[in-house]
Design a protein that fits this description.
The chain is of the alpha/beta class and about 450 residues long. The protein has 19 helices and nine strands. The strands form two sheets. The chain has a five-stranded parallel β-sheet, sandwiched between helices.
Length: about 450
């Protein structure tokens, strides 16, 4: 991901750049003015944030950038304006900062808004879906609408008509403009989901896909699941994805599989779900009592356990201390603290789903209620619960490591210190066997 920094003062620019590089995983690109920045954005669309002065010389820099982003459908880019000579309230993607903003204050603002991504979802009567997922449909199962945010209002820019053929090149052009989501009428959403499930199911299991295209497809599928929510449609799609992942672990077991996920282009939530599912299966295979229901339940729990979490800051919370330090609102902290219980309840309402999935999700942080971080392993705590807890925590520790190295012994020791239970100890011993004999 890239961030454009427009700041004429060389010393201040260096300070801003240094602080951003230290705390955010964004590549900082410096530009002299709006004209220079816009020329750059025409050729490289992967821009997530812009930090700019309100005015540079005679140029109304912030206004020029905001008008371009609003009119081109790229309102997913977040603009941080330093200085009073611009009314940021006119644009929902612009954020006003004081003229004397320090590098530390700027960084705090960037971290808070980093989670904002994609177009507004608050369009009554419409559901959002990832625009990239349209490339795989073949034809549009219903009318699909492309929108932009202009002067604070949603406007339909284009309608892809039902039954028309999908032109992949056209979809790619919109993607290059920074547009990430399209919208479907509420009453048509069921038809779209059925068609998407059918197409994705067929494409995922195709042996002809290259690893790169498969990685992109999985990313689209997992986003699709998140947008659809926790329901029977997303469960079907998740099951197809999981079965495909498990087939690959037969060819590329243990450390090779985990390292491949670690180095993939998928984002953190997808890597975590993917890695937790793989680890769960690899560990389960060490036990003679395991059956397909156990493995499927573990994998479904891997996909949906964190379904209520909306950003990296929330995904990275794992105890009361990290919750207190998280840069999220008090309302979101309540959701994070009880997200396992919320997700488990939604899963329990689905038909034809094993009750084991709900139990596994509730035990994600070590207690039967799925609330908070109490690490209270009750009498009903089973070896399957231990497999899920170890897989989930190991995935988090691997992906959260600042070093590009998997320190297995260190991570397993941390997990056992957190969950000192005979079942956890047994599962950790199985993990060591898996990685010692891949």
């Amino acid at each position: 991901m890239k961030l454009i920094l427009i700041e004429p003062d060389e010393n201040l620019r260096s300070l801003f750049e240094l602080n951003i590089n230290q705390k955010l995983s964004y590549e900082v690109i410096t530009r002299d003015d709006a004209k220079d920045a816009l020329a750059f954005m025409q050729i490289l669309p992967d821009i997530r944030m812009i930090v700019t002065k309100d005015k540079i010389g005679n140029e109304e820099t912030a206004k020029k950038l905001a008008e371009y982003l609003a009119n081109s459908g790229r309102s997913s880019v977040q603009v941080f304006v330093i200085g009073p000579d611009f009314n940021a309230e006119e644009y929902d993607f612009c954020h006003q900062l004081s003229e004397n903003t320090t590098p530390e204050e700027l960084l705090e603002a960037l971290v808070k808004k980093k989670k904002i991504k994609g177009q507004s979802l608050s369009i009554k009567g419409y559901y959002p879906v990832p625009i990239r997922s349209l490339k795989y449909l073949g034809f549009y199962p219903c009318d699909i609408f492309l929108t932009i945010r202009k002067e604070g209002k949603s406007e339909f820019l284009k309608c892809f008509n039902s039954k028309e053929a999908v032109t992949k090149d056209d979809i790619e052009k919109y993607c290059l403009k920074g547009i990430e989501k399209v919208f479907i009428k509420e009453e048509d959403f069921g038809d779209y989901v059925k068609q998407a499930n059918l197409i994705f199911s067929n494409v995922i299991v195709s042996p002809d896909l290259s690893k790169k295209s498969k990685d992109e497809l999985r990313k689209a599928v997992l986003r699709q699941i998140k947008n659809i929510g926790v329901n029977e449609h997303s469960l079907t799609l998740a099951s197809t994805l999981i079965n495909d992942i498990h087939k690959e672990t037969l060819k590329n077991k243990a450390l090779g599989t985990v390292a491949e996920i670690f180095n993939s282009s998928m984002g953190y939530p997808f890597q975590r779900s993917y890695m937790c599912s793989v680890l769960s299966k690899l560990i389960s295979d060490q036990f003679t009592w395991k059956d397909q229901t156990h493995i499927q339940s573990l994998s479904i729990a891997s996909v949906f356990a964190d379904s209520e979490l909306s950003c990296f800051e929330e995904q990275n919370v794992y105890n009361e201390e990290s919750l207190a330090l998280a840069k999220i609102s008090s309302e979101r902290k309540k959701v994070v603290k009880n997200h396992a219980a919320i997700a488990a309840k939604k899963i329990s309402e689905l038909k034809n789903t094993s009750p084991l999935v709900e139990q596994l999700i509730r035990y994600q942080h070590g207690n039967q209620q799925g609330e908070g971080f109490h690490f209270n392993l009750a009498d009903k705590f089973s070896i399957l619960h231990a497999i899920f807890i170890v897989s989930d925590n190991l995935s988090r520790l691997i992906l959260g490591s600042p070093r590009k190295k998997i320190l297995l012994a260190k991570y397993l020791n941390e997990i056992y210190n957190l969950y000192p239970h005979p079942h956890v100890e047994k599962v950790i011993a199985s993990v060591k066997d898996v990685f010692a004999n891949p």
